[in-house]
Structure formats: C-alpha cells, structure tokens
Amino acid sequence: MPKRLNATMRGFLLGLFAGLAMQTSAQVDDGIYVIPSFDAYLVILSRNDIVNAYYFGLDGEDSYWLAMQGSRVGETIELADQVNGELGASRLEQDGLGLKMSLIYCNKYPLDVENPCGDSVEEAAVFPVLKANGNLKAIYRTQYGADYAIFESDGTGVLLVFEYGEDLNDRTWIGAYTGIIKI
Q1: How do residues 29-77 score in pLDDT, each as one tens digit?
Q2: Is omega for the bond preceding 128 within 30 degrees of 0, making it cis?
Q3: Where is 67: in which H helix or E strand?
C-alpha cells in the first residue's frame, strides 16, 4: 500500500509541476497599443521593472503626446504623469485579447477644484498593434528635448519621435519611421 500511495503522490506532484511550468506569464508586453475609446495610442518600453510610456493621439493639428513613467508591480504596470498641474496614475493589466487600463487616481492642483479630472474614463480596453519582441529597445533624449522611442518588432525597426514645439506645453509634433533591420 505505501508504494502505491507514493506512486500516486509522485504522479500528482509531477502533473502539478508540469502544469505550473507550462503556464504563460500574463505580464504586459512592450510595444505599441491602440486605445479605441480615447482614439489614442500607447507605447510601452521597459527595462526590468522600470517602465517608460508615451500616450499620444494623432488628429492633424490636434495631435498630442504625453510621457509617463512607472514600474511593473507583479503582472501589472502602474504609470504616472503630470500635465498642467494635473497628476494622474493608471494601471495596465492583461485582459482577454489585450489590456485593461484603469484609473488609479487623479488630482488637480490646487486641490479645491470640484471635478479634478473632468470626465475621465475609469476603464478602457487597450489592444496590441506591434509587439517589441526583438533585442533592440531604447529611449533616447536629444539635447533639444525630443524623445526617441526605438524598438524592434519581428525584424522591423520602429522609431517614434516625440518633440516639443515652441514651448514645453506644445506637445504636438510626433514622427514615426520604420525600416528593415539588416545585420
């Protein structure tokens, strides 16, 4: 009887460990995502647990971009930003076909404002466009303040340029370039 119990226990434990080893991580991947409810895009590039992101919209003269920083917290990403005295934070986590973006908090300075974040959406669906699945992944800042987000997606190099206009509040210039990587 003890040998049969041990064989049964070994089989159970082997099956349990095999099942755990085969589970895929639900970690948020780096790359470009689209947020249809905001008519906007999100670029996520990380190194270990430090995350840099750019939230941007492309609408002719009404284009805009916003740089955000944050970190990985378990299998989610938490990002914060500050624009024109408004401080906000969002959480990104895997959800079905893409990601779910949730508002963590939003404050406006001074704090005596009744409706600090206007009509902020509490949750939004976020879908992948291009995954950053190659070895190339970097963010550079020029001496003039432009940010270059560079990554590789299946052998294609992607360069996104986020540049200020006439002052630091003018964040309307966005450039996007692609090319084939040859080694």
Answers
A1: 999 999 998 889 999 999 989 999 999 998 877 888 989 999 999 899 9
A2: no
A3: strand 64-73
